[in-house]
Structures are given as C-alpha cells and as structure tokens.
C-alpha cells in the first residue's frame, strides 16, 4: 500500500504518461472506490477492474451491458434489447445487493433498490471502477457483492460522434471541456432505436397465473441524456466540484410504454487543513421517476438526499486513519394514475459513522475498519472489514480478507400495500446480512503488460427478503451461499494485447437448495486486440455463459457470442469506428421469455478534439 505522497506523485506521473508503444512501463491506473483514497489498482486490498475511456471507444460499446458483461465476476441479464430492464449480478449476489455510484453519489432507486442501467449512455462515461467483495464498512447499505462506480465523461476539448446500425438505431453525442485550473465539462447524447420484439411466445408458458400479453411488434427506445461538471480552486488547498447527470428514456413494451427520468446532483468541497489532515464534504441528490402507461398505469417518484463527511488523518508515512459520517434520507410516492389514488407516500433515513485504518509494515499491508448505521425502520447495525496483503517479491502478492455487509429493505418492500393484500411490503423487515471471506494471489510483470490474478471467495447471506409470507407478503426467510473462483489473465506482446477471465461460482438458496436465478455457474471472456498504428485498433471478443435457472423452474441454455470492433484514425482527431455483435447470429435468451439481438452492425464517425 502506497503512502500518501506516492499516491499523488504516481497520479501526476500518469497524467503525462505517453500512450504509445514507446512507453517502457505501463503504470497501474489510480482508483478511488476500493479504499475511498487514491490507490494504484495493484495496491488495493480488494479485486478491482477498471474500464477506461480508451477501452470504451476501442470496443465502440453500444450499451453499458457491452462494457460490464466481459468483466470478471459480473453477470448481466437483459429483458429485450436497448431499453430493456437490465440486472447486474456481482459475484453471484442479487442486482439490488450491488451499490451503484455516479461521481460518488448513490444512483439506485429508493423504491426498488435497482439502478436503471438502460439510462446510461457509454458516450457519457469517462471510466468505470468495479470493486468485487463487500464494502459496507465504507459505504453502508447495498455493497454486499461490491461497488460499481461510474465517472462521467470529462472531455479535454470538443468531442462529437454519430453512429447508426441495425434495428434502425441512431446515436449522437457532443461534448466540450473548457478551462485549466477552473474547469467546465459538458456532454449531451441522444439514442433512438426501433428495436425488435422484446418478448417471445414462451413468456406465455411461464408460471401459473402469469399475466401474458405477447405482441410480436417492435419495441423501440429513445434516450436523451446530459451530464456536466464544474470545478474550481477556492483558496489554498481547497477545491469545489459540482456535478450532475440527467437522463430521460421512453421504452415500448407489449402492454404499453415506460417513461423513466433519472437525475443526480452533487457538490463536493475538499480541503487540506494541515499536512496530516484533509477532508471532503459531499452533498448529493438523486431522483428516479418511473411512469407506466398501460392497462395498469402507475407513477413512482423517489428522491434521495445524502451528506458525506470524510476525514483523512495521515498518522505517519505508512499509516492513515479515515473517519467519516454519512447521512441520507430517501422518500417515495407511488400513485395509481388511473384512479389518482396514492398507493404509498413514505420516507426512511439512515445515519452512519465509520473508521478505517490503513497501514504498511514491511511487506505487509493492513486494513481494519468498522461502521455503525442507524436506520429508521430497523434500528442499529454494525459492519466491519479486515484485510491483509503481503508482497512475496518478483511481482507476486497474496491477499486475504473478511468482511460483513448488509442491505436495507427498499421502500416497496417496507410499505407497498400489494395488490388486494398480496405481495405487500412489511414494515417489520430486518436487513439482509452477509459475511464474506476471500483469498487472492496477484502477479504483475515489471513492465505492467502481463497480469495474473486468482481470487477464491465465499459469501453467505442471511435474512434474504422474499415474498413468501401470508398472502406472499415480504418476509425474511431465505439464506444463500455463494462460493466462487475468479481467474484473470492479461498480456501484451508488441502490437497485440489479450485480456481474459474465468468466473466459477455456485450461487445457492439454502432454504430449498435451489440455484439463485439468472446467475450462471461458469462464465468465460476473452478479448484480443491489435493496434494498427497510432489511434487505430481492432478487437475480437468471445463471451461464453453457462446455463442459468429462471422463473417457473425454467433453465436457460448456455451461449457463446463472438463480437468484432475497431476504430481507424482518418486524421489527427477523426476516427471511423464499427462493431459487429453476435457474429454467428446465435439465438439465445438472457432472461426467460425475452428476445436478444441477432447479428447486428454499427458504424460511426468520431471527433476527439482534445480527448
């Protein structure tokens, strides 16, 4: 683990590091999500994957799904095409047991606990950090499987792109970055697709009493998004950053349409009060508005206010103590728009305090942290984290950790009255709780091009919330276990680069000894790239996903996809980019009863005036 001056020196060096093949050493990226401090990714005491802006552009990603599904420990299930509901499972945990942050602000819905992944355009992303393993001690609720943080785009000049492709899909994006010490960045993007029929006839063969209204028409999607940041120094050592993201999406489905609005605002003040003490104070606001127009219309509006005060005390060159305070309030209102009846109008609040000690002794790195949260619905809860890393020499490092985490019930699970009393919430719910242990081994070649990683983990979750009580009311009943192994290998020779990962896991519901839904036992990914010259690259992707259990005792077969993408530099700042997905036109299901894209083609042009 690096001491603070080395953190800053490394970050400064990386800012000017050449990206050509002449660079002798590839320094590891600096990440902030794992420890809430700038840390070289290889020094973090948790497995971290970084998806950079360069990688997003090289693969000409059409959705965040394209970016996430290739990463170790991550599984994705999409209901249809662009605009379809998307579930992201991290290390076998449920999609609402993964904390999602956008520029440091909680982004998931307070009503459902889920993030609207379809609303986020790749054109608005600077990078993504994926931390695998529990992080409740640092962030509180939801971080059972880990944390996915999205940092919005920060262009260095004028950027613009236009793309078109299969299913009458069109994309356009414009961004600009201005200033030096005082900076303003702004990005606007637009997506439209006619899509394809999201559902297929098998949806009507689902569980008994399943409502079915299959219609083979195309289900389109339109998204309009904007994000921006403003940062400026205030006085010696102090800096102010304002950030925001807004997205409005309209998606068609067989029973009607969904209109979704997501918004996030953040204000962060950071300052150094002494050589041994700095702090940050962050105010956050997020909203998630969801309107359904169909035979059963409804409207759900949620909002969340957050306050985070983090203090970093540098006790010595090798020891840091972090202490912090979190507060958040979430409120939601559900209205039956057909009758104007208020289904529920409720709020919850939570206050948390935490302390995290990071230290280096010789070749050992240590982390010891604890957190206490008080929630308005269920009272107090304590979580903790213990991690140890040991440098073996010659680029090898071994890690071991143990952590506890929890997920607070969402507003629907607490307060929704259900439908005629069925599937109602329960204000007496306890939080879902977890314990996780991990043993890992890493190797990094001195020049940084070859990396090997193996992580053996085991997570046990208690008091899972299920609708199994009287009239299928929400109750704490289930237990689950998730043992798993992640293997990662990356290498590069000359103009060639290779990234691969294998995830083996066995997510089980211990109550009835059944598989957890939509999580495969095996997933393998491989990405092979070759640079063709400055700014030009081609990439081949292979993704193989094993069979999965789904609703109604259905089993979805495994599938293997082949994709090809490339970007070609026309002039100093102009690029042509293209992508072919599902080259073999594989017919498969990601979610039972829903279609997936066949062979698709996309072609576009991009201008990067300043990066």
What this model shows, in words?
- The longest helix has 12 residues, at 4-15.
- This protein has a single domain, classed as TonB-dependent receptor, beta-barrel domain (Maltoporin, Chain A, Beta Barrel).
- The protein has 611 residues and is mostly beta strands.
- The protein has a 22-stranded antiparallel β-barrel. It has a five-stranded mixed beta sheet with strand order 3-8-9-6-7.
- It has helices spanning 4-15, 53-58, 64-68, 136-139, 411-415; strands spanning 30-31, 39-40, 48-51, 74-78, 86-90, 98-102, 105-106, 125-132, 146-152, 158-165, 169-178, 183-196, 219-233, 239-253, 256-274, 277-294, 298-316, 319-336, 341-361, 364-375, 379-393, 396-407, 432-444, 451-467, 474-493, 496-505, 508-509, 514-515, 522-533, 536-545, 548-550, 554-556, 559-569, 574-581, 600-608.
- Residues 1-24 have low confidence and may be disordered.
- It is built from five helices and 35 strands.
- The two termini are 31 Å apart.
Number of strands: 35
CATH topology value: Maltoporin, Chain A
Main β-sheet, in a few words?
Answer: 22 strands, antiparallel, barrel
Report the total helices: 5
């Amino acid at each position: 683990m690096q001491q603070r001056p080395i953190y800053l020196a490394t970050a400064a060096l990386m800012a000017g590091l050449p990206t050509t093949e002449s660079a002798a050493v590839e320094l590891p990226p600096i990440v902030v999500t794992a420890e809430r401090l700038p840390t070289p990714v290889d020094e973090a005491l948790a497995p971290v994957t970084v998806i950079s802006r360069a990688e997003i552009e090289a693969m000409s990603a059409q959705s965040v799904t394209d970016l996430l599904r290739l990463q170790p420990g991550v599984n994705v299930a999409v209901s249809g095409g662009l605009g379809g509901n998307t579930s992201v499972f991290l290390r076998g945990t449920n999609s609402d047991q993964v904390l999602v942050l956008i520029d440091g602000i909680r982004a998931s819905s307070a009503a459902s606990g889920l993030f609207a992944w379809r609303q986020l355009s790749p054109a608005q992303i600077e990078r993504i950090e994926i931390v695998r393993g529990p992080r409740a001690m640092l962030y509180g609720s939801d971080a059972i499987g880990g944390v996915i943080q999205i940092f919005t785009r920060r262009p260095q000049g004028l950027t613009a792109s236009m793309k078109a492709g299969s299913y009458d899909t069109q994309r356009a994006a414009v961004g600009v970055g201005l200033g030096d010490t005082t900076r303003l960045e702004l990005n606007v993007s637009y997506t439209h697709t006619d899509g394809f029929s999201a559902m297929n006839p098998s949806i009507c063969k689902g569980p008994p009493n399943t409502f079915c209204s299959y219609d083979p028409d195309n289900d389109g999607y339109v998204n309009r998004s904007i994000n921006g940041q403003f940062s400026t120094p205030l006085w010696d050592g102090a800096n102010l950053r304002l950030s925001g993201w807004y997205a409005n999406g309209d998606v068609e489905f067989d029973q009607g349409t969904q209109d979704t609005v997501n918004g996030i605002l953040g204000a962060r003040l950071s300052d150094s009060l002494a050589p041994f003490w700095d702090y940050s104070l962050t105010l956050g606001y997020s909203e998630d508005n969801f309107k359904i127009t169909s035979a059963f219309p409804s409207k759900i509006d949620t909002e969340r206010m957050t306050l985070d005060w983090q203090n970093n005390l540098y006790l010595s060159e090798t020891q840091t103590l972090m202490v912090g305070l979190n507060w958040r309030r979430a409120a939601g209102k559900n209205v039956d728009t057909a009758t104007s009846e208020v289904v529920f109008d409720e709020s919850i609040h939570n206050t948390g305090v935490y302390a995290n000690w990071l230290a280096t002794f010789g070749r050992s790195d240590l982390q010891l942290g604890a957190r206490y949260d008080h929630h308005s619905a269920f009272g107090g809860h304590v979580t903790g984290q213990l991690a140890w890393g040991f440098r073996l020499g010659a680029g090898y490092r071994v890690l071991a950790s143990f952590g506890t985490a929890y997920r607070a019930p969402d507003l629907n699970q607490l307060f929704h009255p259900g439908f005629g009393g069925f599937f109602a919430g329960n204000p007496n719910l306890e939080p879902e709780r977890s314990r996780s242990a991990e043993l890992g081994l890493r190797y990094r070649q001195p020049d940084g091009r070859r990396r090997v990683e193996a992580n053996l983990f085991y997570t046990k979750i208690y008091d899972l919330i299920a609708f199994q009580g009287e009239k299928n009311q929400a109750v704490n009943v289930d237990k689950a276990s998730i043992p798993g192994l992640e293997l990662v290998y990356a290498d590069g020779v000359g103009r060639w680069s290779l990234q691969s990962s294998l995830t083996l896991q066995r997510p089980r519901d211990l109550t009835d000894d059944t598989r957890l839904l939509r999580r495969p036992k095996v997933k393998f990914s491989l990405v092979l790239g070759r640079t063709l010259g400055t700014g030009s690259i081609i990439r081949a992707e292979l993704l193989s996903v094993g069979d999965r259990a789904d609703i109604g005792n259905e089993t979805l077969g495994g599938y293997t996809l082949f994709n090809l993408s490339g970007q070609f530099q026309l002039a100093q700042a102009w690029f042509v980019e293209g992508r072919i997905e599902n080259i073999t036109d594989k017919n498969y299901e990601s979610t039972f009863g829903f279609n997936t894209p066949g062979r698709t083609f996309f072609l576009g042009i991009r201008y990067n005036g300043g990066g």
